Amino acid sequence: MKGKRDYYEVLGVAKSASDNELKTAYRKLALKYHPDRNPGDKAAEENFKEAAEAYEVLRDPRKRQIYDQYGHQGLEGSGFSGFGGFEDIFSSFGDIFEDFFGFSSRRGGRGRASRGADLRYDLSITFMEAAFGVETTIDLDKHETCDACHGTGIEPGTQAETCPHCRGAGQIGRSQGFFTIRTTCPHCGGTGQVISHPCKKCNGKGQKKISKKVSVRIPAGVDNNSRLRLSGEGEAGAMGGPPGDLYVFIHVKPHEFFRRDENDVICQIPISFIQATLGDRITVPTLEGEKSLDIPKGTQFGDVFRFRGDGIPSLRNGRKGDQIVQVTIKTPTNLNKKQEALLKEFSKLEDAKLGKRLKNIIKDTAAKAFQ
User: Fold this and answer.
1) Between 332 and 129, whose confidence is greater?
2) Which domains does the chain have, with CATH numbers?
3) Which parts of the chain are beta strand (E)?
4) What is the mean pLDDT of the chain?
5) pLDDT tens-digit profile of 175-192?
């Protein structure tokens, strides 16, 4: 699939472009690729949609900031997915088209059903909840299609009436010399119809704001910034159109003992230098309880041990990673005189052993030199 072009490149402006510069650049492209000027030209249609999407993002300070920081992926994460078709573009930019061209791009008749906007929810969970999965409930404020009028905004038992000012055309024409310029009807907003009896339950809006509890199942193995999609839990669609989706972004709180590396779990275990020297069996915490670990004689600082299959499950195939145990060696402090004396004696024995080893190395080196 062909990737999206940079929005600044689409409009042919610099990243520092002002609102006026953006509007001027978009006006030029919209005029050039407008479908009424290029009937049946698929390439022009795509350029028209591309320019509209770029302008929609860059004219909005919030969307522009997200795009500048995170690009197209950041916009998708924030719930912006572009325009569904020409009707969405004309609905958003109808007033701009009037400013640009002296005519409206809206068609008469009630507006078409359109999909609702996507929503984003940021959810924080614990390290253990991410490892094992959890089902939780979130509180969501959103708009829902009015169940009385089913999104039409019209009181049940009544119907919309033809606008008496534009006679259902949605536009009003006025003559200027040889030309007739058509503009959006100010009385019906270009719909061609007026609602004399708005729905009492939603005040004619076709939607109502609600607070809803939504159940979210977090699968085992999610990581920081994982994204879950809940189909149909977004904003209600216009004119009874389908709702958008809800995207839940996961934020995993750090653990005081464990840390994660892909599907492996890493921890550090401190042992004494005596345990490291003589070896020992110790108890190590894991995600599912405690396990015994044999520390061999002569263990060094930073040595690593591994519990196979005690890590975090993969979201793809459910296969678990490992738990990696890294050993650190504690240096003893606050020794009494007897302990110091024993360590000094031990040091002398070690120095003697080291001295003998060095002498043997020197002797062997000299012997080889004269062979």
Assistant:
1) 129
2) 1-102 (1.10.287.110), 106-160+195-254 (2.60.260.20), 259-330 (2.60.260.20)
3) 119-125, 134-145, 161-162, 171-176, 179-184, 193-194, 207-218, 227-230, 246-252, 259-261, 264-272, 280-286, 289-295, 304-307, 323-330
4) 80
5) 655 555 677 888 777 777
